[in-house]
Amino acid sequence: MIFITVGTQLPFDRFILGLLSVLEECDILDKHKVVVQCSSDHTEEYLYYSDKYSNLEVVDELNKESYSLYFEEADVVFSHAGMGGVIRAVEFGNQLVIFPRLAEYREHRNNHQVDTCHSFRNKFSNVHVAIDMIELKSIIVDLFFGKETKEESGSDWKENRKNLIAGIANVVNQY
User: Fold this and answer.
1) Is the pLDDT of residue 25 over 80?
2) Are 85 and 5 in contact (CB under 8 A)?
Protein backbone atom coordinates (compact mmCIF):
# COMPACT_ATOMS: atom_id res chain seq x y z
CA MET A 1 0.00 0.00 0.00
CA ILE A 2 1.10 3.56 -0.71
CA PHE A 3 0.27 6.20 1.90
CA ILE A 4 0.59 9.87 0.97
CA THR A 5 0.39 12.28 3.89
CA VAL A 6 0.88 16.03 4.18
CA GLY A 7 0.06 16.70 7.80
CA THR A 8 -2.77 18.84 9.09
CA GLN A 9 -1.54 22.43 8.84
CA LEU A 10 -1.73 23.47 5.20
CA PRO A 11 -2.68 22.09 1.78
CA PHE A 12 0.20 20.78 -0.32
CA ASP A 13 -1.25 20.40 -3.81
CA ARG A 14 2.08 20.88 -5.60
CA PHE A 15 3.38 17.72 -3.93
CA ILE A 16 0.25 15.58 -4.04
CA LEU A 17 -0.75 16.36 -7.62
CA GLY A 18 2.85 16.13 -8.84
CA LEU A 19 3.31 12.81 -7.05
CA LEU A 20 0.05 11.35 -8.37
CA SER A 21 1.04 12.44 -11.88
CA VAL A 22 4.41 10.67 -11.58
CA LEU A 23 2.80 7.53 -10.09
CA GLU A 24 0.33 7.51 -12.99
CA GLU A 25 3.09 8.06 -15.56
CA CYS A 26 5.05 5.15 -14.08
CA ASP A 27 1.95 2.93 -14.24
CA ILE A 28 1.87 2.46 -10.46
CA LEU A 29 -1.52 3.92 -9.48
CA ASP A 30 -3.57 1.06 -10.89
CA LYS A 31 -1.39 -1.62 -9.28
CA HIS A 32 -1.42 -0.52 -5.62
CA LYS A 33 -3.88 0.62 -3.01
CA VAL A 34 -3.22 4.33 -2.50
CA VAL A 35 -4.44 6.47 0.41
CA VAL A 36 -4.01 10.23 0.16
CA GLN A 37 -4.36 12.19 3.42
CA CYS A 38 -4.78 15.86 2.68
CA SER A 39 -6.43 18.95 4.04
CA SER A 40 -10.17 19.26 3.63
CA ASP A 41 -9.78 22.01 1.05
CA HIS A 42 -8.26 19.79 -1.63
CA THR A 43 -8.84 20.78 -5.23
CA GLU A 44 -11.14 19.35 -7.89
CA GLU A 45 -8.05 17.87 -9.54
CA TYR A 46 -8.02 15.18 -6.84
CA LEU A 47 -11.34 13.94 -8.21
CA TYR A 48 -9.68 13.09 -11.52
CA TYR A 49 -7.50 10.54 -9.77
CA SER A 50 -10.11 9.19 -7.34
CA ASP A 51 -12.63 8.80 -10.18
CA LYS A 52 -10.13 7.11 -12.50
CA TYR A 53 -8.56 4.76 -9.92
CA SER A 54 -10.96 2.84 -7.69
CA ASN A 55 -8.10 1.76 -5.42
CA LEU A 56 -7.24 5.41 -4.59
CA GLU A 57 -8.86 6.85 -1.48
CA VAL A 58 -8.70 10.52 -0.47
CA VAL A 59 -9.15 11.23 3.25
CA ASP A 60 -9.09 14.46 5.23
CA GLU A 61 -7.56 14.76 8.67
CA LEU A 62 -6.91 11.50 10.52
CA ASN A 63 -6.92 10.74 14.21
CA LYS A 64 -3.72 9.33 15.71
CA GLU A 65 -4.95 5.72 15.62
CA SER A 66 -6.00 5.83 11.95
CA TYR A 67 -2.76 7.59 11.01
CA SER A 68 -0.76 4.83 12.72
CA LEU A 69 -2.82 2.11 11.03
CA TYR A 70 -2.06 3.54 7.58
CA PHE A 71 1.65 3.64 8.43
CA GLU A 72 1.51 0.06 9.66
CA GLU A 73 -0.15 -1.10 6.44
CA ALA A 74 1.97 0.96 4.03
CA ASP A 75 5.00 -0.32 2.19
CA VAL A 76 5.89 3.16 0.92
CA VAL A 77 4.98 6.49 2.53
CA PHE A 78 5.28 9.83 0.76
CA SER A 79 5.20 12.78 3.13
CA HIS A 80 5.97 16.45 3.56
CA ALA A 81 9.23 16.86 5.46
CA GLY A 82 7.62 16.95 8.90
CA MET A 83 9.15 15.10 11.81
CA GLY A 84 6.00 13.09 12.53
CA GLY A 85 6.32 11.21 9.24
CA VAL A 86 10.03 10.54 9.71
CA ILE A 87 9.52 9.21 13.23
CA ARG A 88 6.61 6.96 12.20
CA ALA A 89 8.46 5.56 9.18
CA VAL A 90 11.45 4.64 11.30
CA GLU A 91 9.13 3.12 13.90
CA PHE A 92 7.22 1.00 11.36
CA GLY A 93 10.08 0.33 8.92
CA ASN A 94 8.37 1.94 5.92
CA GLN A 95 10.19 3.23 2.91
CA LEU A 96 9.66 6.97 3.38
CA VAL A 97 10.05 9.69 0.76
CA ILE A 98 10.05 13.21 2.18
CA PHE A 99 9.45 16.33 0.12
CA PRO A 100 9.72 19.87 1.54
CA ARG A 101 7.06 22.55 1.62
CA LEU A 102 8.48 25.82 0.28
CA ALA A 103 7.79 29.35 1.46
CA GLU A 104 8.01 30.72 -2.09
CA TYR A 105 4.83 28.76 -2.95
CA ARG A 106 3.18 29.80 0.33
CA GLU A 107 3.21 26.20 1.51
CA HIS A 108 4.88 27.22 4.78
CA ARG A 109 6.15 30.29 6.63
CA ASN A 110 9.79 29.53 5.86
CA ASN A 111 11.99 26.84 4.28
CA HIS A 112 12.86 24.86 7.40
CA GLN A 113 11.62 21.68 5.70
CA VAL A 114 14.44 22.02 3.17
CA ASP A 115 16.85 22.01 6.13
CA THR A 116 15.08 18.92 7.48
CA CYS A 117 15.53 17.20 4.12
CA HIS A 118 19.23 18.03 4.02
CA SER A 119 19.62 16.77 7.60
CA PHE A 120 18.10 13.39 6.75
CA ARG A 121 19.58 12.83 3.28
CA ASN A 122 21.56 9.55 3.28
CA LYS A 123 21.11 9.05 7.06
CA PHE A 124 18.71 6.08 7.05
CA SER A 125 18.29 3.25 4.56
CA ASN A 126 14.53 3.71 4.47
CA VAL A 127 14.32 7.54 4.37
CA HIS A 128 14.64 9.07 0.91
CA VAL A 129 14.80 12.80 0.19
CA ALA A 130 13.39 14.51 -2.89
CA ILE A 131 13.80 18.28 -3.19
CA ASP A 132 12.12 18.48 -6.60
CA MET A 133 9.97 16.40 -8.96
CA ILE A 134 13.01 15.08 -10.85
CA GLU A 135 14.43 13.55 -7.66
CA LEU A 136 10.96 12.33 -6.70
CA LYS A 137 10.55 10.44 -9.97
CA SER A 138 14.04 8.93 -9.66
CA ILE A 139 13.26 7.66 -6.16
CA ILE A 140 9.91 6.24 -7.30
CA VAL A 141 11.59 4.33 -10.12
CA ASP A 142 14.18 2.93 -7.70
CA LEU A 143 11.60 1.95 -5.07
CA PHE A 144 9.08 0.34 -7.39
CA PHE A 145 11.29 -1.06 -10.12
CA GLY A 146 14.65 -1.72 -8.58
CA LYS A 147 15.24 -1.35 -4.90
CA GLU A 148 14.07 -2.92 -1.68
CA THR A 149 10.63 -3.30 -0.15
CA LYS A 150 9.54 -2.74 3.46
CA GLU A 151 10.27 -6.38 4.27
CA GLU A 152 13.80 -6.17 2.92
CA SER A 153 14.69 -2.93 4.70
CA GLY A 154 12.62 -3.30 7.85
CA SER A 155 15.07 -5.61 9.58
CA ASP A 156 17.29 -2.71 10.60
CA TRP A 157 14.49 -0.65 12.17
CA LYS A 158 16.01 -0.81 15.66
CA GLU A 159 19.30 0.57 14.38
CA ASN A 160 17.43 3.20 12.34
CA ARG A 161 15.46 4.17 15.45
CA LYS A 162 18.66 4.65 17.46
CA ASN A 163 20.19 6.69 14.63
CA LEU A 164 17.00 8.75 14.31
CA ILE A 165 17.08 9.75 17.96
CA ALA A 166 20.74 10.74 17.65
CA GLY A 167 20.03 12.59 14.39
CA ILE A 168 17.14 14.54 15.88
CA ALA A 169 19.28 15.46 18.87
CA ASN A 170 21.99 16.76 16.51
CA VAL A 171 19.49 18.86 14.55
CA VAL A 172 17.94 20.28 17.73
CA ASN A 173 21.36 21.06 19.22
CA GLN A 174 22.28 23.07 16.10
CA TYR A 175 19.61 25.64 17.02
Assistant:
1) yes
2) yes
Tally the residues of the chain. Answer: 175
Domains along the chain with CATH numbers: 2-173 (3.40.50.2000)
Cβ neighbours around 44 below 10 Å, total: 6
For residue range 122-162, list pLDDT tens digits in order: 888 889 999 999 999 999 999 999 855 445 544 454 565 56
* Tens-place pLDDT, residues 99-117: 999 989 888 888 889 998 9
3-state secondary structure the chain: CEEEECCCCCCCHHHHHHHHHHHHHCCCCCCCCEEEECCCCCCCHHHHHHHHCCCEEEECCCCHHHHHHHHHHCCEEEEECCHHHHHHHHHHCCEEEEECCCHHHCCCCCCHHHHHHHHHCCCCCCEEECCCHHHHHHHHHHHHHCCCCHHHHHHHHHHHHHHHHHHHHHHHHCC
Alpha-carbon distance 121 to 123, whole Å?
A: 6
